[in-house]
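Before drawing any conclusions, I looked closely at one protein's amino acid sequence and its backbone structure tokens, quoted below without any editing.
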Amino acid sequence: MMKVIEHEHPLKLVDLQVNVEDVDDKSDDEEEKEKEEDLVPQDEFSCTCKRCDEDINGYYRYYYKCIHDSCDFALHKFCAELPETLKHATHPHPFILRTIDEDWTCVNCLRGHKPGACYECICCYWLRKDVNCVVEVDKRRIYHPSHPHPLVSLCYKPILCQCNACGKEHKGVFFQCTACPNFAIHNDCAFLPKRLLIQHATNAIFSHTHPLTLSYSFPPEEIRAKHNPRCRVCDGNFYYDLDVWIYKCEKCIYYVHLDCATSRRESFMSILSIGPTVKNFKDVDYPNLLRLPFPDETCSIPKHLFFKKLGPGDYGNHEVSVQHMNRQHELILVDTAGSIGSTSSSSKINDMIMCHNPMKKIELLCSGCVRPITEMPFYKCRAKEDESCNFALHEWCTRRLPTKVDNHPGHPRHPLLLMTNIPNMFNIFRCGVCLLDCNGFAYGCVECEFYVDVTCGFMPERITHESHPNHLLSIVKEGQPSGSCLMCRLYVSPYTLNFSCSFCDVYIHPWCALLLPKTIRHPYDKHPMHISYLPIENHKSEYFCEICEEELDPHKCFYHCDECSQSVHSDCAPLILQSETETHSRYRLERGVYRFLNMKFGSIHKKTDGHPHPLTFAQGIESDGGCSVCHWRLRFEMILRCSECEFAVHHDCLENWNKS
């Protein structure tokens, strides 16, 4: 027990670090009971010392409190054990500890104080010092779990120093280790809460289901195991801050910098100026704004722009057959019953045509935009019985595509003309926007040899995207600063068109924004798989792709089924229909989308120089072996394969062969 001059009751000594339970020793039943309580972090002990007006917390370990529980009087152990009389080197007269009944100011630090205990000179009654200015430095110590030695505050006045907790240099009061001269942590960092809800700390600008736990390091092994995660608030990395503290979720792959998690507004900390939940535009100013991603594979930019002008009731007014430009076969309308119509009953074909359906492993791609044909009516080539042609078109790609595009952001100098055939043997071109090979329709400038696919031909100037909600994303012209794509996390070239947020340092590749739908279907999963831009909550284990069976980085966009916990690379998603034959990461460009996303395979080329049999345009597989011309392997490449013999060749080898 202890008596002090400013309190009428005795005080008892309390050890705040005694009987601390190890959470690992808890039983499963106890953990189950805490599941609901886990949503809100438990308050840590904290009170105010009545002498120095500083906080008392568990890091100080010992403190004195009133023996009566109803009384909140408390003192630091070193404050309570101060002598009643002391001599100080800065003054010739002794000081006595006494209680002052009026407001007063310390002559050392010039801080103002309310009535309470202080040291007063026995001769100079006006000369008063607060306990912080006279207490011995060694007694102002804390026992912090981040460091094996006690830490002391060597100087009560603010100093400029590097903080080992947040990794920043700033001015303030620091706790330092006398055994390790290079270790110091700022007062604010030393007493950060061990657990917090980020929505409380950031005014709900950012949110997470579980409380975040303070971690005193982020080991390189954990960084590599979690695929080099970024801070969920500022999107910065942790590469150069391996020894600094972070906040992390124990149940999810969720990591945040100290200053980001606490949103502290000191001059040395980051200030959240405009978060992703704060809208930076008005809908009325952008009535035709394209909001991405599209809901599913049935949607595309051509459909968004042209299908809406045509109601379903108008299909009956269309001619059954049309002669499409530059095509040797007549195109006929496939009606809503799935049968093929024709202008003459004698030429009617009774075959049933099925639309694209991944659940039934049926693939039907439009030969114009190379997007799936998922609904009727659509147009198909009416080939004769001895002919085979997989040419098919959406209704809007057949009739409603404009013949030219003016002022395209990728080539504003000349208009781009609609071209159903590119002047080469296999109608293959490299799109100038998404940089993917394509054998569909193109908008092109023959003079400059600039071509874009139908989707990129109508690339909008501005969009919004779910991955960066509430902020406008605008086309960035060539020569802008480079960065990484928010979706695929890969390099954004300053020499290509990209979408960028003018308020944030955020970039998105056009192919990631325009070509990846919100949901896909998998034949082995009855639920839709939704695109995710971040690791899934309550999923801390490793991720593996169901298509290529390789490890998946959850910090890059991917598709995931919450019900079945199945995941798919975004660039493996179009391979669902080939998952039982041949898949490999080489088909992926490591750019967020499938390498052959704009390629339609299956066409048959009957007349080719150098080989007497028809050749099928396809993806090379292992059994194809080497090219019959250059002898390099055909696997993972665009090839032409003979079904009657073992002849197989790279498409460009055959084209060069025919030119020679």
Notes: The first strand starts at residue 11 and ends at 15. The chain is about 10% helix and 25% strand. The two ends are 104 Å apart (CA to CA).
